[in-house]
Amino acid sequence: MPETAKRQRIQIPSASSLTYFDFNTDESIVKRLTGAVKEEYKNLLRNVTGSSSFRFTTACEASELTKLCSRLLEIYTRRDYEVAFPDLHNITPIKDPDLISSLKEQLLTAFQEESSGLTLGIPEIVDYSTNFRVKYSVATKHSKEYEEVDISNYREYLDECHVDIDNVSLFGKHTLCILDENENLLQTFSIYKSLLFDCKHGDKTYHLCEGNWYEINTNFIVRLKTELDPIFVDDHDILCACNQKREDEYNKYVEGRSPENIRCLDKSSIAPQGQRTVEPCDLIAVKDNTAELIHNKISTRSAYLSHLFSQGVNSVILLRQNAEAKNKLKELVGHNPSLEEKIDKDQYQVTYGIITNKTREMKSDALPIFSRISLLRCVKTLKLMKVPTAVFLIPDNVDRKHPNED
């Protein structure tokens, strides 16, 4: 899943249809499928493996190769698969070298301008049971160790080495190193293969993942915009422009503007005993006969937004399913009969506040493409629970590129 660089391998021990694998075609790039072919093709081959191309074995005499290739070409040109898999081309790989070259130029510009849409991630599944560390390597020089992969650490190391990135090819020469707790090298990847990036070129949208470029179907993007733009609101009764460097400082400030009507629940938890922390929201207030659960996040970085949107859904589900969680929330809001009544009746609405320097006129276009996909999934889930949802783009008055400056 490019949005969070999440990877998974799914295997079922017996022959099953594709629906049993339960992956979302809107959010996932399928790297490889292995399966049996339809009955009508079994005279040609039995099993196939691949994604945009495939590998197979078949018993065939040399004299029959021409006939086999003609039959395969005929199958290749068929479009009947679009009926069974209408979303298959929402995300498609790009092979055109001229287009890729243009996209790489945009990648270089984004890196030089420190775009928040450009991030780093480990491009393969890693065994997290091992306490691993991260280093960056330029030629024979290695950086200090870091606890996680972060593009800001890579930039820091380039500054220390006095290296300017003026050509995309340099990303291929620099290395992301994964080490165990004894500093033994586990895996290495080129920086280029570790970059995650989406951009527009012409009137189309593209995404870089694991060193490969993908086109996002234009009709799919239009559908996202049509469904999401209506939930982006132009103003909000509680949320205001952000002049604070940290989210917790902003949440406290908003609470302080109207302490009788708003409760700040940042860093609190409604998790039942023995379970991991579940934050109900950052701010809670009464709005339109509901308890408004407000979740705020600085930045439009895709991975951060994924967590934000999921948090909004998970807290509502927990509150509706678990009496202990509901009682904990009532304790957190203190003596507030109006809020307690809404909580008892499960009357909620969810508002996502995104602190950004992007304008409100952009609406859903202000978010990375995979964040829009994630948001739509969460909005649909909340809609099933009859929970209204809104998104408010909070003006950011802080220079995030230079956090040490006042």
Describe the structure.
With 406 residues, the protein is an alpha+beta fold. It folds into 3 domains: 18-90, no CATH class; 97-214, no CATH class; 230-395, no CATH class. The protein has helices at residues 65-76, 81-84, 97-112, 151-160, 169-173, 191-194, 218-228, 247-257, 302-321, 323-333, 337-344, 369-384, and strands at 33-36, 47-50, 54-56, 91-93, 118-120, 133-138, 141-142, 174-179, 185-190, 195-201, 204-209, 212-216, 232-233, 262-264, 283-287, 290-298, 348-356, 389-395. The strands form 4 sheets. Strands 13-18-17-16-15-14 form a 6-stranded mixed β-sheet. A 5-stranded antiparallel β-sheet has the order 4-12-11-10-5. It has a 4-stranded antiparallel β-sheet with strand order 7-6-8-9.
Total of helices: 12
Structural class: alpha+beta
Distance between the termini: 37 Å
How many strands appear in the DSSP assignment? 18
List its traits.
single chain, 406 residues, alpha+beta, 3 domains, six-stranded mixed sheet, five-stranded antiparallel sheet, 18 strands, 32% helix, globular, disordered C terminus
Summarize, please.
By secondary structure, this protein is α+β, with helices and mostly antiparallel strands.
Topology:
Elements: E1 33-36, E2 47-50, E3 54-56, H1 65-76, H2 81-84, E4 91-93, H3 97-112, E5 118-120, E6 133-138, E7 141-142, H4 151-160, H5 169-173, E8 174-179, E9 185-190, H6 191-194, E10 195-201, E11 204-209, E12 212-216, H7 218-228, E13 232-233, H8 247-257, E14 262-264, E15 283-287, E16 290-298, H9 302-321, H10 323-333, H11 337-344, E17 348-356, H12 369-384, E18 389-395
